[in-house]
């Protein structure tokens, strides 16, 4: 299913960047610097450290770790969406960092299978950390061969955020729970010059919402089959696509949604230009207080005959994990110190309290300063959870699915063409 981690395979994949293009992204560090051979220097590669949610807490935690371990230096490498590409390039040179903090998605799905990272199950158990992890997270990070790809860390709830004040202004009396109610609410919002549902139809946010809506008529097993194989021809999948097209052509989504990104989506909701968005925990935590206090969280409205009895949300435990590289195995004592520290209840609590992060680890701490994050955690049986397809979509299909998503959000595109675009995304997988 996955191609070997070879120089030709990696550099031809994804963005197609050549090594000379990728190397400067290592925050000013060369690959030689990244692979510090000093056994007293731990090299960590992360997406945290700039504007990513949780970055201030992470950097503060690193400072504390350094103070508690004065004989151990920590080198922090930072990348954004290109982290996987940069890591793979460094691994080809055998100069990869020791620990990688990234989610389970697209390229990373193949890492353990091709030896780019190692099975960490033995370390988790040997270090006595298994009981710190939620069972759902362990299951999500374990591959079909029983290997634990990484130490689970960040999770996320992914409900729908509704600006109650904007709905009231438009004369919408209640949070919509059915497709008909959502269409009626959208018409009233548009009459007041308010965009209904804002969504990044040109990136991963739109891809996730599209998958959520399609699953309206799918059981978990049926959804797993569809997103593993690219077969959207079942009755439930076709009904889900029809439902999406009906909502889209009724004006439910913001104008030109097919060109919007996650940043533009967040801006529209946070500035109250749009009334509704699909918002994962990190987005909920960034909603301004003056907007948050009249925002409610719930699920995506259902259609008649749905496979679910409650409005749906997404939830995942694979947002960020700690992967150990072959180089990290050579410094396993340092890696153990670092992971024990990051798994410590005090460190976990700081991420929850200071950054509003949902965690894949057990904790009694509540996001008191992030009420919408806490509200999403309390939804419980009031919503139905659908499948986040990330761990089932073949890596080669991940980016083509984004293109298919933009096509799908283009008004006037028929259900037949939406299905064809989705299935075409899998042809290279």
From TrEMBL:
Leader sequence segment: 1-34
One Pfam family hit: SBP_bac_1
Stated name of the protein: ABC transporter substrate-binding protein
Annotated InterPro entries: Bact_solute-bd_prot1 (IPR050490), SBP (IPR006059), TAT_signal (IPR006311)
Superkingdom of origin: Bacteria
Keyword set includes Cell membrane: no
Organism: Streptomyces milbemycinicus
PANTHER family in the record: ABC TRANSPORTER SUBSTRATE-BINDING PROTEIN, ARABINOSE-BINDING PROTEIN-RELATED
UniProtKB keywords: Signal
Keyword presence, Signal: yes
């Amino acid at each position: 299913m996955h191609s070997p981690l070879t120089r030709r395979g990696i550099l031809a994949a994804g963005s197609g960047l050549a090594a000379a293009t990728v190397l400067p992204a290592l925050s000013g560090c060369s690959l030689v610097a990244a692979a510090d051979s000093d056994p007293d220097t731990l090299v960590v590669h992360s997406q945290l450290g700039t504007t990513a949610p949780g970055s201030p807490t992470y950097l503060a935690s690193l400072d504390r770790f350094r103070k508690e371990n004065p004989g151990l230096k920590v080198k922090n490498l930072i990348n954004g969406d290109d982290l996987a590409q940069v890591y793979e390039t460094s691994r080809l040179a055998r100069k990869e960092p020791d620990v990688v903090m990234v989610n389970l998605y697209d390229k990373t799905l193949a890492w353990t299978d091709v030896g780019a990272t190692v099975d960490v199950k033995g370390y988790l158990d040997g270090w006595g950390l298994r009981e710190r992890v939620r069972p759902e997270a362990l299951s999500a990070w374990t591959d079909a061969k029983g290997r634990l790809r990484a130490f689970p860390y960040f999770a996320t709830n992914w409900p729908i955020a509704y600006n109650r004040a904007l709905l009231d202004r438009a004369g919408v009396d209640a949070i919509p729970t059915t497709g008909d109610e959502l269409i009626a609410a959208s018409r009233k919002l548009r009459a007041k010059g308010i965009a209904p549902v804002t969504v990044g139809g040109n990136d991963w946010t739109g891809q996730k919402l599209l998958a959520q809506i399609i699953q309206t008529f799918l059981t978990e097993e049926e959804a797993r089959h569809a997103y593993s194989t690219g077969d959207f021809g079942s009755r439930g999948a076709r009904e889900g696509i029809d439902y999406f097209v009906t909502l889209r052509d009724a004006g439910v989504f913001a104008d030109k949604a097919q060109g919007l990104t996650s940043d533009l989506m967040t801006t529209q909701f946070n500035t109250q230009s749009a009334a509704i968005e699909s918002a994962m925990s990190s987005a909920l935590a960034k909603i301004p207080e003056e907007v948050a206090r009249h925002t409610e969280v719930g699920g995506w409205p259902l259609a008649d005959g749905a496979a679910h009895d409650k409005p749906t949300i997404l939830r995942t435990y694979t947002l960020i994990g700690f992967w150990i590289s072959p180089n990290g195995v050579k410094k396993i004592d340092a890696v153990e110190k670092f992971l024990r520290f990051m798994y410590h209840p005090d460190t976990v609590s700081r991420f929850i309290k200071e950054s509003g992060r949902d965690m894949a680890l057990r904790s009694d701490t509540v996001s008191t300063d992030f009420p919408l994050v806490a509200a999403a955690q309390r939804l419980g049986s009031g919503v139905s959870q659908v499948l986040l397809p990330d761990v089932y979509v073949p890596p080669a299909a991940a980016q083509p699915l984004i293109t298919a998503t933009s096509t799908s959000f283009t008004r006037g595109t028929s259900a037949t063409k939406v299905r064809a675009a989705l299935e075409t995304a899998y042809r290279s997988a």
